[in-house]
Write a structure and sequence with these properties.
This protein is an alpha/beta fold. The protein folds into 2 domains: 83 residues, Rossmann fold, CATH 3.40.50; 81 residues, no CATH class. 35% of the residues lie in helices and 22% in strands. The chain has 5 helices and 7 strands, in the order βαβαβαββαββα. A 4-stranded antiparallel β-sheet has the order 4-5-7-6. A 3-stranded parallel β-sheet has the order 1-2-3, with helices on both faces. The longest helix has 15 residues. The protein is globular, with a radius of gyration of 17 Å. The chain starts with 6 loop residues before the first strand and ends in a 5-residue tail after the last helix.
């Protein structure tokens, strides 16, 4: 079984906020792999909602971030929701890597043809050329023999708008399988 990666955040001080912005910045700029980020507040707590209002009022309204950047994280108020978010992230999605200019998304289950068509329609805006294609492993991936048997979704996207990549992962996990 694959080792799952996730990042959990709890209310805190400067260090918490530094870690929060660092992980979000690295994913937003494509310098770190996209993983589930869960901000867990106490029941009826509002720490992360207050933070979110600041982010929307100052960063989003000023055009410093985009709406899709909010896809990088989920705010929850109990551990059951937090665990569900992490498990759902890896429901179909396994992992991803770049092979030259192609983004290779490894998936645990093959998607239906209709699901791939739908993904192409929903995410045409991030494709630099071609379309999203379901395939086997590329020859360049032979250095990862433990996951060669997984199906792939391969696309040639613009290397920007990584919030849309996170939305693509969510859409993959909501897709019908073959």
């Amino acid at each position: 079984m694959k080792e799952a990666h996730a990042f959990g955040l709890f209310p805190g001080g400067f260090g918490t906020l530094d870690e929060t912005f660092e992980v979000l910045t690295l994913m937003q700029t494509g310098k770190a792999r996209i993983i589930p980020v869960v901000m867990l507040d106490r029941p009826r707590g509002n720490y992360w909602e207050v933070w979110m209002r600041f982010i929307k009022d100052r960063l989003l309204k000023s055009g410093l971030i985009s709406e899709e950047d909010f896809s990088f994280f989920k705010i929850t108020h109990n551990t059951r929701e937090a665990v569900a978010e992490i498990l759902n992230f890896y429901k179909i999605y396994h992992s991803a890597r770049w092979v030259r200019d192609r983004f290779v998304i490894r998936i645990n289950k093959r998607l239906s043809k209709a699901a791939v068509i739908k993904l192409n329609h929903q995410f045409a805006d991030i494709l630099r050329k071609g379309e999203i294609v379901q395939s086997a492993a590329l020859p360049q991936e032979k250095n990862e023999p433990e996951i060669l048997d997984l199906a792939r979704l391969i696309l040639t996207p613009f290397r920007s708008r990584f919030g849309r990549f996170r939305e693509l992962i969510d859409a993959i996990n909501a897709s019908s399988t073959a």
